[in-house]
Amino acid sequence: MPQTRQQFHEELAALDRQMLQMGTLVSRMMTQAVDALQQSDTAEAEAVLAQDDAVDAMNHDIEARCMRLLALQQPVARDLRLIGTAFKVITDLERIGDHAVDIAKISRKFSRQIPAGKPLIDVGPLAAMAQAMLLQSLEALIRRDMTLARQVCADDDRVDDEFKALREQLFQLSQGDPSFTPRVAYTLLAVVYLERIADHATNIAERVHYVETGELEPLAREHRLAALAQVA
Fold first, then answer.
1. Number of domains in the chain
2. 131, 194 Cβ separation under 8 angstroms
3. Which of 5, 19, 69, 163 has its CA 20 to 30 A from that of 179?
4. Structural domain boundaries, residue 201
């Protein structure tokens, strides 16, 4: 393999490692944010907020690497799709980090505005599903594993079902006791952010399909329905 081509592949491998590092960081932030929410742990919430700048820095570094690769290597076909996908992936990862921060801020509201307040429902199972999807989508991306990518998209359907069930529970609680309304509102926001994290993981998984096939295809149920609605 010519030296320039070997160097290009090494740069692509470094790009993968950077995306994985960024994904690992936002996954940790998500874990800490949910723990802070469930336990009303202000210190844990502050730890999440402190890592937001690091996510932004990683986002900028990866974007700069992608721009250098485009300018210096002039990639085509699959290699071009890989770099284009990296731009999309870091946007999704940055959004996941933002949602972890949002959940951490909700935790602070519980502890500061509603003394000793905690979520009225257990968001743990939903959080676990969303985080598993995130980690699996990153694994699918690094391994270019279309089977795993499709599984992530299928799991998004389960997350949507769990989200709807939790939302209904919260509505019932609010109707049963109006004094629960502030806690219901904050908890519902956290549930929405977790569902959105799963959506971003799905976006990453669908990009694996694009890298390997060159076709942008909605693999998750929600995305398929949205695509059909646009056609109609």
1. 1
2. no
3. 163
4. 3-231
For residue 7, pLDDT over 60 is answered with: yes
What's the mean pLDDT when you consider all of the chain? 89
Q: Provide the token pair at 80.
A: 């071009």
The span from the CA of 50 to the CA of 19, in Å, is 20
Count other Cβ atoms within 10 Å, centred on residue 61: 14
- The H or E element containing residue 153 is helix 146-176
Q: Please state, as a whole number, how many other Cβ atoms lie within 10 Å of the Cβ of residue 205.
A: 30
Cβ within 8 Å of residue 106, ≥6 positions away: 37, 186, 187, 189, 190
151-170: per-residue pLDDT in tens?
999 999 999 999 999 999 99
Tokens for 217, please give them: 């295809």
Unique residue bearing structure tokens 């959004």:
95
